[in-house]
TrEMBL record:
UniProt topology in membrane: Multi-pass membrane protein
Compartments where found: Cell membrane
Any GO molecular function: quinone binding
GO CC annotations, alphabetized: plasma membrane
Stated role: NDH-1 shuttles electrons from NADH, via FMN and iron-sulfur (Fe-S) centers, to quinones in the respiratory chain. Couples the redox reaction to proton translocation (for every two electrons transferred, four hydrogen ions are translocated across the cytoplasmic membrane), and thus conserves the redox energy in a proton gradient.
Family (UniProt): Belongs to the complex I subunit 6 family.
Catalysis: reaction(s): a quinone + NADH + 5 H(+)(in) = a quinol + NAD(+) + 4 H(+)(out)
Residue ranges the record marks as coiled coil: none
Full protein name: NADH-quinone oxidoreductase subunit J
EC top class, as a word: translocase
E.C. number(s) listed in UniProt: 7.1.1.-
Residue ranges crossing the lipid bilayer per the database entry: 6-25, 30-49, 55-74, 95-115, 140-162
Length: 173
């Protein structure tokens, strides 16, 4: 097996993505968890670039690494929360976690064992942004619109919940 630059870049990006996820689960401070999540998001965007999905990579950077992360940080800063750390589990938890990771790795290995990576993908580099737009607004228009309605309902619900908290605080004072 020869190591090309593309394989090396993929391995580095994959390791950063996995390590970001592991750090997200193991860190105790919430802000540090968000930073680990940003590393995962950015490395996934790099993998998308390697797959010639530049539009998806840019959306990954703008939406997830930018907007979602900022919203999470604002949510952390603007809410009251006790900064007590959770009691870490003992050896049994670590062993079960390790077995779960090994099981997942084995399932991924079984899933990709017989794949043929030597055959070229059809139309990979040709107008991928246009193809996404056509598919999104023709074949997947109903799920796209339903998602926008669900997000709107979630936004209205968050506003109502925040307003109730403000009213309860005003009554206490």
């Amino acid at each position: 097996m020869t190591f090309s630059g593309e394989l090396l870049a993929f391995l580095i990006l994959a390791i950063v993505a996995v390590m970001g996820g592991v750090l997200l689960l193991n860190l105790s401070k919430v802000v540090h968890m968000v930073v680990a999540l940003v590393f995962t998001f950015v490395s996934l965007a790099g993998i998308y670039v390697m797959l010639s999905a530049e539009f998806v990579a840019v959306v990954q950077i703008l939406i997830y690494s930018g907007a979602i992360t900022i919203i999470m940080l604002f949510g952390i800063m603007l809410t009251r929360h006790n900064d007590t750390s959770e009691v870490k589990g003992g050896r049994l938890r670590k062993v079960l976690l390790f077995l779960g990771v090994l099981g997942f790795a084995f399932a991924v290995y079984i899933g990709i064992y017989n794949l043929d990576f030597n055959s070229p993908a059809a139309n990979l580099h040709e107008n991928n942004t246009e193809q996404i737009g056509i598919a999104l607004y023709t074949k997947f228009i109903i799920p796209f619109e339903l998602t926008s309605v669900v997000l709107l309902v979630a936004l209205i619900g968050a506003i109502i919940l925040a307003k109730k908290d403000d009213e309860e605080e005003a009554k206490k004072e």
